[in-house]
Structure formats: C-alpha cells, structure tokens
Design brief:
Shape of chain B: elongated
Radius of gyration of chain B: 16 Å
Structural class of chain B: alpha+beta
Strand order of the largest sheet of chain B: 1-3-2
Low-confidence stretches of chain B: none
Shape of chain A: elongated
Order of helices and strands of chain A: HHHHHHHHHHHHH
Strand content of chain B: 5-15%
Oligomer: heterodimer
Largest interface: A-B, 23 and 18 residues
Number of helices of chain B: 4
Largest sheet of chain A: none
Distance between the termini of chain B: 29 Å
Mean pLDDT of chain B: 88
Distance between the termini of chain A: 22 Å
Largest sheet of chain B: 3 strands, antiparallel
Order of helices and strands of chain B: HEHHEEH
Chain lengths: 299, 111
C-alpha cells in the first residue's frame, strides 16, 4: 500500500480511540475498501499515484471519518452506565449511611473494587472499568499518606521504598489508560479533586484523631452526596456520544462537586483553597490530553 | 434551500437499509449499488458510509459479519436484521406518503 494511504489509515487509527478489537476491525474494513477502490481506479487507466489521490478525495478527511466512527461506537448502554456509576454510588452510600467506620464494609468495598478493576482490565478495558480503576488506586495513595503521618522513622520508609513504588504504579496505569483514550484517565481521576477538598475540610490541625473522626461523622452525609453526584456524572458521560459533550460533563461535574464541598464544609475551606482546588481540578481533568499528545509525538 | 448532500444525509439510514435488504453487501459494494440504482445521483464521501453502517449495527438494525473469500481476503458483509426490516417497512410507508403529498402540491395545476 502507498505511503499516503498508510498515513491516512494511521491518522484514522490515532483519532479513533476505540478498544483494540474494534479499532482493528475498523482499520481492516477501511483497508479492504481502499484496496477495492484502488484496484478499480487502476483498471480505469489511472496511475498508482492518481488512484491514491482520487481514493483519498472520495474517502474524505481522516479526522472527520474517525470522529464519526467514534460517535457511532462511543455511547454505552444503560447497563454499562450503571456499572460505571456503581463505585461512586457505593462510596456515596458508605458515607450517607455512616458505614465508613465499619472495617468490614471498607474491606468488602476494597475487595469488590479490586475484583472489578482486574476483571475489566482483563476484559479489554471497557469504558465502565475506569471509575473502578480510579478507586482501586486510592488505597495506594492512602497508604502513602498514612506512612507520612507515622513517626519519623516510618516516614523514611515511605520516602525511600513505598513512595517510588507507588508513584511508578500510578504512572504505569495512567500512561496505559491515556494510550487507550485520555478522557478515560480524566474519568478515572474524577473523584480526586472532591476527595482532596473533603480531606482539607476535615483535616485536624494540632487536634486529636477523635476530633477528626467527629468531623468526618458530621460531614459524612454531604461527602456521600458528593459521591452520588459523581455517580450521576459518570452515567451521563457513558451515555453521551460526542467528545466535546463528554469533556463538558466532566468539567461541569468538577465545578459542581467542589462547590458542594465548599458549601457544605461550612467555611472550613478558604476562598484561596477553593480556587487552588478549582485549578487542580482543571489540571487533573484536562492535562491527560496534553500527556496523550506528548506520548504520540514521542512515538 | 437544502443542498443535495444534506438531503442524502437525512435519509442515509433508509438508503442503506434498502440496499442491504436486497442482499448482504460489503461497504464498497453498497456505494456502487447506490450509485447504480440512483443512476449516479447518490455520490457521497465514501468515508461517511462506515460511520453510518456502524451506527445501524449499534442500533441493531444491521449486522456486520466477516467472510473469507476464496482468495483469502476478508470482507465485512452487512445483513439487515428483523428490527431493521420493520424499521424499513415503516420508513418506506412514510416516504411514499410524503412523495405522494409532495407531488400533489409541487406539480403544476392543469386547468
């Protein structure tokens, strides 16, 4: 196949952002189409280069074709939407019903999240996997924070051994997710700004852990409500077809959930902290697009 | 006034269902068949055919199946489904009613 035609197919592949098997089928189908077209154009008396040019004109812009095929495939079913929203809804219920203090519930949730994340990864990374994947990384981050809060000797353990390992794991999973579609990385990281907001709101400053637990108890229904809002966001994300709508859904959800945190935290979140969180939220949700571009340019 | 490609775009699903209802076909064959049956009227960007076929497949109106030819090449043939047939019958009825009504109005009135 001529280089211009291969480049055309590569451009479609780069912009499809479908799972591997669907992508392979789409490219194979278009490749067969191009071969048929070129064969007929060559039989009509055109040179190889003329046939390739005519074929590309008849096919139209690779980006437009890829975008339209993406939109034909992107909408998930209601079942997938519910499955994707489930981890947020479960975490929402955990706080709303005040089960977060029960170690049994937390362990059960952790096991379920890990099972779903491994199962989804093994089944070819469907769209519903990414919220589960995000929660499966939470214990890694939580363990790092706990190690930093332990006495000084433990902090060294965290800095020398655990943190590099944890960062490597987070980096590896994030890069693999970005390669599939940067929007799924944003979907995976979606709860992060809200969790950071609540963490700042309940964090004890020179106070005993009992105060921290009491504050968590006070805020629990509102924390639950934030997670339920994230669940609705994820379900909407899965059901809409167009990429710009999906991006809008994530950003608007980030704005709403952080506003909820600031409102229900009853002044424990300063305006400066709120604004910094807004910037962090935009960076967390949109920077994967830049990383994807960098990864593609570096081959 | 609506351009020709906008009229085609609005009716592409019906056109595709009509063609594959006749017999299972692959993408390139569908384009040639549309061109032949419309005597060259229906010519559109070929790249837009596949999003439309995939949309029909996602909606359960068509089914794409890979077939290996005797020369070893593979082609994806699209079949119409039961649901697609029902939709086609309904759309055909709507279209014929529309054409009849349009003709009644658009044709010059003879005294």
């Amino acid at each position: 196949m001529l280089t211009v035609l291969s480049n055309y197919l590569d451009s479609i592949r780069d912009n499809l952002r479908l799972d591997h098997s669907s992508e392979k089928e789409v490219i194979q189908e278009l490749e067969t189409h191009i071969e048929d077209e070129i064969h007929e154009l060559r039989e009509s008396g055109l040179s190889e280069a003329e046939a390739a040019d005519t074929c590309l004109t008849l096919l139209g812009s690779a980006k437009v074709v890829a975008r339209q095929i993406y939109e034909a495939h992107s909408q998930g079913s209601w079942t997938q939407a519910l499955l994707a929203a489930t981890p947020h809804l479960l975490f929402g219920l955990l706080f709303a019903l005040n089960w977060w203090r029960g170690i049994g519930w937390l362990l059960g949730m952790l096991v379920l999240v890990l099972i779903m994340a491994v199962y989804g990864w093994w089944r070819g990374k469907p769209a519903w996997l990414f919220p589960w994947l995000g929660y499966s990384l939470l214990p890694v981050v939580a363990a790092a924070l706990l190690l930093l809060y332990l006495p000084q000797s433990w902090s060294w353990v965290a800095i020398l051994f655990y943190l590099p390992l944890a960062l490597w794991l987070l980096y590896a999973i994030t890069v693999r997710t970005i390669k599939r579609d940067w929007l799924y990385t944003s979907l995976m990281l979606l709860p992060l700004p809200a969790i950071a907001g609540w963490f700042i709101a309940v964090e004890p400053v020179n106070q005993l852990p009992e105060h921290w637990l009491q504050r968590m108890q006070d805020f629990a229904p509102w924390i639950g409500l934030t997670f339920l809002a994230l669940g609705v966001t994820v379900a909407t994300f899965i059901r809409v077809r167009k990429r710009w709508l999906r991006i809008s859904v994530l950003v608007v959800s980030g704005l709403i959930t952080l506003t909820m945190v600031a409102y229900y935290a009853e002044g424990r979140l300063s305006i400066l902290a709120f604004l910094i969180l807004m910037v962090v939220m935009l960076l967390v949700l949109l920077s994967p697009a830049l990383v994807e571009r960098t990864l593609r340019h570096s081959g | 006034m609506a351009k020709k490609h906008e009229l085609i775009k609005g009716n592409i699903d019906s056109l595709l269902l009509c063609v594959i209802a006749q017999q299972p076909m692959y993408g390139y064959q569908i384009i040639k068949e549309l061109e032949r049956r419309s005597q060259g009227y229906f010519k559109f960007k070929e790249g837009t055919l596949y999003p439309a076929l995939h949309r029909l497949e996602k909606a359960g109106l068509a089914l794409g199946e890979w077939q290996t030819l005797p020369n070893g090449r593979q082609r994806r043939y699209y079949h119409i489904t039961e649901k697609g047939l029902n939709i086609l019958v309904a759309k055909r009825g709507q279209w014929l009613d529309f054409i009849t009504a349009m003709n009644l109005i658009i044709q010059p009135v003879s005294d």
